[in-house]
Amino acid sequence: MRAPVSLTMDEELYHCLCDHLFPEDGDEHGAVIAAGIVETPRGTRLLAREVFPARDGVDYVPSPRAYRMLTAQFVAEHAEYCASERLCYLAVHNHGGGDTVGFSGPDVASHHRAYPALLDITNDGPVGWLVFATNAVAGEIWTRNGPQALQFARVIGPRVRTLYPSPIGRPRAADPQYDRHTRLFGDVGQEILAGMKVGIIGLGGGGSLLNEWLARLGVGHIVGIDFDRVDLTNLPRVVGATPWDARSLLTRRSAPWLQRLGKRFAAYKVDVARRVARAGRPGMRYDAIKGDVLDASTAGLLRDADFVFLATDSIQSRLVFNALVHQYLIPGAQVGAKVRREAGMVSPHGTFAATRIVLPSPGKGCLECHELIPPGRLQEEALTDRERRAQRYVDDDAVHEPSVITLNALGAAQAANDLMMMFTGLYTPETTLYHQLNFVCCRELSPVEYRRQSRCPDCGTAHHSRRARGDRARLPCRA
Amino acid sequence: MGFLISFQYPRADVYPHFIDGSVSRKDGAALGQGFSATTWQDRKALQISRRSNRLDPTIDTAALKLQKVLDWLRSG
To answer: Which 3 state secondary structure label does DSSP give A145?
Structure first.
């Protein structure tokens, strides 16, 4: 198990746990968390999927060796459940106090007694123990190789919170170039952004804008994913793309073979994006991935991202994005612009820029719950171009949707601000991050209230849902 | 009968279905809506377009969809 080890919880589940642990009676309470697991070079993330509160006096009782303990029956029942669901078993209790918390001597002794049996029951776990205070958490996570301390817990909501065992030191003073930033969100906010890994799927109009803004905001690590090369028609809206990138000397020629040659040697969009990002933030880490997020190996690069943007047109990539958000508890945003034409005219109510924040909580912007992943479109997009023409889904390959950088910018700007506000603590926990449609022809901003489908396979709480299952479930990708 | 199960099944619909291009109605009437002549896997075929508007990936399997399409064909 690679260090650092962390726990991620969505805000709804965290509140459910806190309501049980801190009912304002000053006493100690217990629970079990069933968690998915993600292991990447960046560390090990435990993903809280379910909380099982232990009933006081029934499941959580006085202990002969410590103050209280979970009963053997409660432990066995939930450890077996975790084993059957391929989840990690985490026993939880609380102590008094606020910003600092740690295990007592009897707590640690009980971990040493219990971990071998728990690892046996849960097929090598990992298993662990967590102790919460109102504003702190400590933990010990066990494998056969011994224990590792939990570094921090992250609570994902409109205001992303990070809990530690004790207060961390003051942040380093930010680079003077960020002086105007730190006047908004402080040195600590700048340090949070520098520590972030952000994925951008699609580096076209919207994605290339996000790419530059994130780099200039000071995000430390960007993973840009796009398989496409710069085309002549991209030049007006892909930030940083030059005529040379599009090999326009060739692609503007009338001879088809020269056009083909130009297209073949045009620059990849991710290479342009990396150049732009590094111009804005020299020395930053940038992974320029010339690949398709529909491939499991490419999508897997985002399993430990802190935030993911989706800026593509395809429904298939929407499915993968929505799965990443919920399976790995990563907040994200889908951005795009839609122009609908009716009888040759631009439809005012069919033309909008969209910002859709998706939080990894049930029904908090899930694209599936909002019926934005139509099953028929997934099937149509799986066809080859030839099959699609044969099945008459496409009449003319030369027909493309309208796309203008200023429309792309509207959706992208709100999403970039949402990331900044969520992670630097500028949003209150009560902020609702509804999907937002900006009807540009009418200058009308329209929120779309949350929708929730109880049987949702992505965000739902039912057994079949992928929510918080981490590496032990399959993403809807090509192997 | 032929159909494609894509890598995003069961989230993706199983649609359309294909039958041999020589199939016709016993009464000689036209095949009507939902059918179109095409080629599939390099052979002449009839395409049957029956999209599931309320697909539930936990219960709507490819086999169930096939059964529904067959029932619809036989009832037509």
So the answer is: coil
pLDDT per residue over A15-31, tens digit each? 999 999 999 899 999 99
B26 touches chain A (CB under 8 A): no
CB A393 within 8 A of CB B37: no
Interface residue ranges in chain A relative to chain B, Cβ cutoff 8 Å = 294, 316, 319, 373, 375-376, 378-379, 382-383, 390-392, 455, 457, 464, 476-479
Interface test with B, best of A373, A378, A388 (most B CBs within 10 A): A378
Ordered alpha helix ranges (H), A218-295 = 248-251, 256-265, 269-280
Q: What's the pLDDT at B51?
A: 83
CB contact under 8 A, A378 and B14: no
Instruction: Report yes or no: A452 and A357 within 8 Å, Cβ to Cβ.
Output: no
Q: Are A272 and A203 in contact (CB under 8 A)?
A: yes
Pairing of strands B2-3, A68-70: unpaired
Tell me which residue of A408, A210, A446, A203 sits closest to A307, measured CA to CA: A210
The helix (run of H) or strand (run of E) holding residue A140 is strand A136-143
- Locate B26 and state its tokens: 């016993």
What's the pTM?
Answer: 0.94
Query: Does the beta-carbon distance from B15 to A477 stay under 8 Å?
Result: no
Closest in A379, A464, A479 to B6, CB measured: A379
